[in-house]
Amino acid sequence: MFWLLFAGTLLNRLGILVPAFLSLFLAAETGVATGTIGVLVGLWGAGSVAGSLVGGALADRVGPRRAVLFSQAVSLAASVTLVCTQRVTVLACVVLLSGCASTLHKPAGAVVVSRELPEAGHVRAFGLLYWASNIGAAVSPAVSGVLLEWDPLWLIALNIATAVAYGAVATRLPGPSGPSGPSGKGGPAGGRSPARGLLAPFRSGPVARFLFLSFCLALIYLQKQSTLPLDMAAHGLAPHTYGLVVSLNGLLIIVLQPFVSRSAERLGMDTQFVLAGLLVAVGFGANAVAGSAWSYALALTVWTLGEILLVPQASAFLVRHAPEGGAGSYQGAYQFVWNLGLVLGAPLGMTVRERYGGDTLWAGCLVLGLGVVTAYALSARRPGRSRHSAPDSAGTDGSDGREES
């Protein structure tokens, strides 16, 4: 079951129409103005943010199988409509749905892992899913670039083919009443409302704190997509140099992730969170003294190691703290705050850099990251905290009433 999910994750990431290639497709096939394309790409991002939350509640309520099938059906419909219209209003709706479909399926993976695997295997499983996603992300730009040169419509054909393939894989995933799922109640955590399921992670003290700290790290990490290329250009580095340096991130993840995760298993979850936050903080802070491609690459290596440690542990943490039937909503909440970090972090980073300079921006990233590390460390030392306990009682967040972590 898990390896089917692994294959589906890789296929989906290979064929997804990411913003960069979406904008190229719109420019080539629709004749829409450049400013309008920017708005449409923004709508794709808004859809991806919303899709995480909706996908979490959907996976808990109808099961991973139907959640993935629904997401791929939406992706298919959006792709077909995209080649059949040039009306801006229709394109706006289609692009929004396409962005939503890009994240709608992701929380279903957390539900599959929580149901099908023992707790001891969660970190490794999430690490492998993260690995599969990065393999697809590494291959996708090269494949998409070639297809775009042949004919932009081949991009849509790739998206359709991978959506159909993932949908076929999804037919083997568990339904709403799989092992260890909601017992006979057909809904998340005993049938609570979808709105309550969406809000539950943010109402649980330990999980809400973790989500806030994750958001702070996202503000730092996602500078790689906004201010980092500008900073490198200001030091005289060409755009293709930025591309080569940033591509090292995916390469390192593909090569190192299985080994780093295995080596880190002997460390406790709290220690890994502290170490991951420290590496992200120091890695981005080091950009203040970087000036060459090699120095930027060295800084990137540091924060990539932090990323490798953080992502699987974060997913495992949320599964461990989710109430029965709530793993999807908790995972969706994490992906929501991470995507929100890009939406808010990009303009915030741009503003700081423009007003106070790049050195101030990277110093701010270091300070914020060290603050997150300190908060992680203090949280780990809280009296009565247990690695294996869940969050607040059912009276406040809809969990199953176990001891607070």
Describe this structure in words.
With 405 residues, the protein is mainly alpha-helical. It has two domains: 1-122 and 136-175, Growth Hormone, Chain: A; 194-381, Up-down Bundle (Growth Hormone, Chain: A), CATH 1.20.1250. Helix content is 77%, strand content 0%. The two termini are 30 Å apart.
Mean pLDDT rating: 81
Radius of gyration, in angstroms, nearest whole number: 21 Å
- Overall SS class: mainly alpha
Overall 3D geometry?
Answer: globular
Number of strands: 0
Helix content: over 70%
> Order of helices and strands, N to C?
HHHHHHHHHHHHHHHHH
CATH H-level homologous superfamily name of the largest domain = MFS general substrate transporter like domains
User: What's the CATH class label of the largest domain?
Assistant: Mainly Alpha
Report, as a whole number of angstroms, the end-to-end distance. Answer: 30 Å
Summarize the main sheet.
Answer: none
Overall structural domain count: 2
Examine the secondary-structure arrangement and name the CATH architecture of the largest domain. Up-down Bundle
Low-confidence stretches: 178-190, 386-405
Q: And the CATH topology of the largest domain?
A: Growth Hormone, Chain: A
What share of the residues does DSSP label as strand, in percent?
under 5%
Number of helices: 17
Main location: membrane
Organism: Streptomyces resistomycificus
Transmembrane segments: 37-59, 206-222, 242-261, 273-290, 361-379
Subcellular location: Cell membrane
